[in-house]
Amino acid sequence: MAVRYALFLGCIIPNRYPSIELATRNVAQALGMELVDMKGASCCPAPGVFKSFDKFTWLTIAARNLCIAEGLGCDIVTLCNGCYSSLKEANIILKEDATLQDKVNGILRDFNKKFYGKVEVRHFIEVVQREVGIDNLRRFVKRPLRLNVAVHYGCHLLKPKRHREVKSVERPTFLDELVEALGAKSISYRDKMMCCGAGGGVRASNPDVALDMTKEKLKNIKDAGADCVISPCAFCHLQFDRGQVEAGLQLNVPILHYVQSLGLALGLEPEKLGLYSHAISVEPILKKLAY
Amino acid sequence: MVSERSEGGEAVIKATEMDPKFKYEISKIPGAEKIMLCFQCGTCTADCPIARFSDAYRPRRILRMVQLGLKSRVLSSDVLWLCAACFTCVDRCPQDVEIAGVLRTLRNLAVKEGFMPAVYRELATSVLETGLAYKIPASRLRKRVEAGLPPLPKADVKSINKLAEVTGFSKIIQARRT
Amino acid sequence: MGWTMEGSLQLRGKLEGPRIGIFICHCGGNISDTVDVNRVKEEASRLEGVVIAETHEYVCSDPGQAMIVNAIEEHGLNRVVIASCSPKMHLDTFRRTLSSAGLNPYLLEMANVREQCSWVHDDREDATSKAVDLVRSAVRRVRHHKPLEPKSMLINRDVLVIGGGIAGIIASIELADKGHRVYLVERSPSIGGHMAQLSKTFPTLDCSQCILTPKMVYVAQHPNVKLFTLSEVKAVEGSPGNYRVLIVKHPRYVEDCCVACGECEKRCPIKVPSEFEVGLTYRKAIYSPFKQAVPRTYVIDKERCLYFTKGVCRLCERFCKANAVNLDQKDEFIELDVGAIVVCTGYDQLDPNALEEYGYGLHPNIVTNLQFERIALAGFKRPSDSKPPKKVAFVLCVGSRMTNEGKGVKHCCKIGCMVAIKQAMLLQKAVPDAEPWIFYMDVRADGKGYEEFYMTAQEHNVRFVRGRVAQVVPIDENRLLIQAEDTFLGTSFEGVFDLVVLSVGIVLSRGTAELAKRLGMQLGADGFLLERHFKLKPVDSQREAIFVAGVALGPKDIRESTLEAMATASRAATFLGKGEISLSPEVAYIILERCDNCGICVEVCPTNAVERALSAVIVNPVACVGCGICVARCPRGAIELNHCTEDQLLAQIEGICEGGVRPKVLAFVERNTAYSSVDLAGQMRASYQSNVEVTQVPTAGRVALRHVLYAFAAGADGVIFVEGDDSVFTEEALREHVTQLKKELSRYGVSPLRLLSITTTIPQYDKALNVFETMVARLGKIGSISEGDRLKLRKAFEELNVIK
């Protein structure tokens, strides 16, 4: 596939998980996908914080980021459900509400920018689904991922329903299918659709509550006999990975971003996927996969 | 941590502290239009992952307080800041009340009154100062280059700052009361 | 030869001069709180021909009617105008008043100053000014009224009952016992409906089958009843008192000589989930739906039978000792002539799959309350392993009381609470140590003995949790977790259950909406059939001599369905007992000397009431519905419509447009559905701009270019057509009509923006109100028509109105 996307990195990836970025760039290359950097882009901005303070400022900063992609002439791809949700919703609001669009453009004029509504905001998962397709994906697989995987969608990949194009919010299957296409088995576990605990600013403002939720999820995942968690979101990734250390859990459940698991299945070296920089070691799964 | 008492005020609700117009004001704000339709069924609270782990957070109670017009209690309450915005309640509410939207609306109003958690303000300040929510240490930036990644595209901090001035955001985050 | 306004004035001169009495109702403040009735009286008394004007607290009351009768005698009145509620409410009442005073009932005109004035406006000055306009219009119009005599026609005494559930059975029995011949048409292979599926009935715990089956047998064997199962109504024509109904009887493939021995069923190799058992068990492709089915004759499911799908098998035929299997049966079409129709088509349950969080279909132990009825009758075994369920959760309001579209419906299912309480009590009796839990938002126990039943359940340790269930999660093959909030405690609740019973919401049965269309009935906003009057004609439909009973009208229990069924039988018998029906005299007639037999009227008539004869056309007064389309389209003014003649229509337009505020919007509103819809806006206390004034017309098709020009000349600045979606003047016809009118108007220098139209159903009064608002907003921009232009338009009208 020869497609071009503006890569929106967000904040967590550069700060904590350049590993996910590394994996993305290498996987994109392997799939023949061109990623363009978004020069001058800022935080999406974090909806939990910015929308809570002032919805209009949130919208304007997000619009500024969208304008950068419009300038590059390609759709945005994100690796974090938070950035996805923030940019996607801002894009929808601006396209639907002409008055707000005018108001935002009134401000952006000072920065030589104008929102036209020319691009779409895509999650990496959507891109794989649309551009590669599940059947094609199976053909790409060189080293089947023979693991029992706890798939975690993360809230904002699916909700709110009216701003998403998913068939089922309560029992979605598309990510499980994408994971199983890599040769893994997606196992069921209790409260699979529950939040990881990080969203909405809770990780920052009420870490105890956030960690209680993370603990509950990981316990259920461990009880179900999963080898690892696969999530499509950098923020959930952070909460599961660092959360285990922060809460002093002895569960040792390794976390993979979907792009990393895809890289493994494509046969890329673990080093090229940044797999050695997680708080919880991924050695056990690499061992199981005979690396 | 948040406690029951953080919803503010005395144990007895006095009719005099109820602002009957509050729910109408709220219902004019996009996202909170259907506040009046809440019939206190408890679905939002029963499916709320935060409510499962925190006794203080009861979205149903917050909606009830808004309906009664307990404006100052609601806006000064710490529990407003517990919503994880997972939107489970939004999709399941039988009355189509966008509960997360109501919470966001209340937070916007609370901020205008000067109520905001310190960490939120720090995150926002960081975005204004660096363009990103976190200040990334120089050592990490060096490491990424060693790992074979291109240098991190620079955020346009000047623009972000100016933009926040124009929308009045910079002022809002200065207004923090406690 | 010409026909002009002057011409009709001569005609008027021949009549005795109008002596008009006008009576204005306070309606106990409903009108007089907003409208200054005394000012209306003063203004009205100055109008030409008015002899007396009076107000009364309640004109419809006995003393109010006596006042009218006295005034007619005392002042020698020969025309009466009543300004009060909608004619939909009291036209018949006041027509009878006139009759009792010896006046022809058609010499009455009503001005609707309640539903279309005092209830929709707040400003006293504006409302009063509008009331004066409406009264002026009525007075001008009534001057042209002529005595009319309805023709009569014999009523066919037979009745068609559609739907063989409890309501249809009761209605049929009542009518048949009164001596009427009843055709009972049921779509499925057996009568009995949902009631046949139930275990026991609340609050008496009577066995449902025990009280139902005797009625099923009685109705089927009744000498006055002809039962058609597997049959559907395909078409209906004719008029009240004389409907002709086409039904199709689908083949059963088993003849009536079937003795129901069951041999065929044993041999049949095809297994299908049983509809009667709500999918909990299987039936065969040849089957009897249930043991007590009426008729008992077996039936073949053509969709599943191997012979019909693959052309093989025929085992049933081979093994039938009675030789009853007949695979050659075909659809049979039958025509029935009846005087009245009773519709009892019942309900379907909502699809619980729309609420994914409740996991229906995901686990065998998540069932609907209807399925639980079958589980109760089969000895209380949970589907997963046939063990008796101990902890059972009853989840109320599944899909009911929801405003989010696609997931559920707004209305309460009305029976869910009591069904759950009953099921909980039955469980407790049958299963030792059973623990029934009921999750509710409100327990609605508002029937006779229901609250007591609820109390008994509380005493018997049925647990009630006040909180709507958020989700149902399967834990293992047998058990389910339920999450809710106990909203009294403000605490989240989790519990593990052996069985979860969903009290699923109720909607109109599949196919009834289409049937309603065929019968000319309307649906309400809740999706159920609409009654004529919510309180006073609760089982009459919008169409005369068609009645409705049971859940097709809205959710209700068996007792209420029975009550309504009996009520429909009474209403139908009252109608049929009249022996003959008077046909409305408001029909078209031909002015022979003007007709050149061009045939346009024959083409445009939507009911084929106009036929060609030798030198002129003829209107069949039985088939004519008085829509007026032919009158508007006749190029030679050779057709008139009784009670909406040219003179009457022009007078009512002139009267309404002449005075009051500017800019003025005149809304021509079709007299049935659209008029009721605009009335409903008043009943719902909606509001719209007081410069929008309504005048009733048979259909928008009655209003021609000349009338629209006349309206603008007389003072209107905007014109709106509101038409019912069931009108003979269809949406498409209206669109064409308006497009044509706009073109013509432009030619006369009138902006096409001044004309709008809308088609609506009764509950969708918002549609009309939106158009009103749009027109008022437009006029705010383009302003009023100048007096100079009005003069030009008047000239244009006069030229147009003279046939050269």
Overall description:
The complex is a heterotrimer of chains A (291), B (178) and C (804). With 291 residues, chain A is of the alpha/beta class. Chain A has 2 domains: 3-123, Glutathione S-transferase Yfyf (Class Pi), Chain A, domain 2, CATH 1.20.1050; 141-288, 3-Layer(aba) Sandwich (Rossmann fold), CATH 3.40.50. Chain A has 14 helices and 8 strands. Chain A has helices spanning 12-15, 18-31, 47-53, 55-72, 81-96, 98-108, 124-132, 134-140, 174-180, 202-205, 207-223, 234-246, 258-266, 283-288, and strands at 3-8, 33-37, 76-78, 121-123, 148-151, 185-186, 228-231, 255-257. In chain A, helix 2 packs across helix 13 (258-266) and helix 11 crosses helix 12 (234-246). Chain A starts with a strand and ends with a helix. Chain B has 178 residues and is mostly helical. Chain B folds into 2 domains: 4-112, Fumarate Reductase Iron-sulfur Protein, Chain B, domain 2 (Orthogonal Bundle); 118-174, no CATH class. Chain B has 11 helices and no strands. The radius of gyration of chain B is 20 Å and the shape is elongated. By secondary structure, chain C is an alpha/beta fold. Chain C has 5 domains: 18-150, Rossmann fold; 152-249 and 331-346 and 509-583, FAD/NAD(P)-binding domain (3-Layer(bba) Sandwich); 251-330, 2-Layer Sandwich (Alpha-Beta Plaits); 350-507, FAD/NAD(P)-binding domain, CATH 3.50.50.60; 587-641, Alpha-Beta Plaits (2-Layer Sandwich). Chain C is built from 24 helices and 38 strands. In chain C, strand 21 (391-398), helix 13 and strand 22 form a beta-alpha-beta unit. In chain C, helix 6 runs antiparallel to helix 19 and helix 21 (705-714) runs antiparallel to helix 24 (787-800). The chains are: A alpha/beta (291), B mainly alpha (178), C alpha/beta (804).
Give the arrangement of secondary structure elements.
The complex is a heterotrimer of chains A (291), B (178) and C (804).
Chain A lengths: L2 E6 L3 H4 L2 H14 L1 E5 L9 H7 L1 H18 L3 E3 L2 H16 L1 H11 L12 E3 H9 L1 H7 L7 E4 L22 H7 L4 E2 L15 H4 L1 H17 L4 E4 L2 H13 L8 E3 H9 L16 H6 L3
Parallel strand pairs in A: 1-2, 1-3, 3-4, 5-6, 5-7, 7-8
Chain B lengths: L21 H6 L15 H4 L2 H5 L5 H10 L2 H6 L11 H5 L6 H14 L5 H13 L7 H9 L10 H11 L1 H6 L4
Helix pairs in contact in B: 8-10
Chain C lengths: L4 H10 L5 E6 L11 H9 L4 E7 L5 H14 L3 E6 L2 H14 L7 E5 L1 H5 L5 H19 L8 E4 L4 E4 L3 H12 L4 E4 L14 E2 L4 E2 H14 L3 E4 L2 E9 L2 E8 L13 H5 L3 E3 L8 E3 L1 E2 L11 E2 L5 H5 L4 H5 L12 E7 L1 E4 L3 E3 L16 E3 H9 L13 E8 L17 H15 L4 E6 L9 H10 L3 E4 L2 E6 L5 E7 L4 E7 L1 E6 L1 E3 L3 H8 L26 E3 L9 H20 L2 E4 L4 E3 L9 H5 L5 E3 L4 E3 L9 H5 L5 E3 L4 H13 L6 E6 L2 H11 L8 E6 L7 H10 L3 E7 L6 H17 L7 E6 L4 H18 L4 H14 L4
Parallel strand pairs in C: 1-2, 1-3, 3-4, 6-7, 6-18, 7-10, 18-29, 20-27, 21-22, 21-27, 22-23, 35-36, 35-37, 37-38
Antiparallel strand pairs in C: 5-30, 8-9, 11-12, 12-17, 13-14, 15-16, 19-28, 24-25, 25-26, 31-34, 32-33
